[in-house]
Here is the input.
Amino acid sequence: MMKVIKMNNIGFISSKGIKPIITLLVLTIIASLISDFLGVIFVLATLFTLYVFRDPQRYIYENSDSVLSPVDGKIIAVDKTDDKLKIHCKVSLCNNHAIRAPFSGEVKVEKYHKGLNLDTSTLKAKSLNEQITYKFDSDDRKTSLRLKLLSGLCNIDIEKMEDTNISQGEEVSFFIDGIAIITIKDDCELLVNIGDKILSGQTILYKK
Here is the structure.
């Protein structure tokens, strides 16, 4: 099928970062009046926050035959459980943090657990950290994908949403830091491997 290029309507900074950035700007001004050293520290903190919440425009190649990655990150493991494949991805502060629809269809929140922000490498993190599972179903109901987000140390509250229809590549949520687990059918031929860096709305995970 012919690929159609579109550019999603995302600005330079995510709306999720407006509040912390404005807060840091105010603190930077106050700190600068107190001490030049403190002013420099807060300037650096503000610049780093701008970097973390960056959300530049990204070109999406729409293709109904392809399942795109919903997250940016690095694949750290691929597990087989029953008839499912689970792709584990590490999402860090250096990644782009927009969560995007892997294909056109319906998205809903299947599970949500309000919790802590422990280091994801600790044993307690899997049970105590904030986590959410989104379920994506294609328009024809033949393709489904689950995305579980396990919050890390630096993550903000994970966005919950109403069930809605969404286009391939459209932004669903925002996730700064933690582990993303993508679950698909075991009969899919993956086009990615452990160690690969994947991009949301761009990297093709597999063909339908």
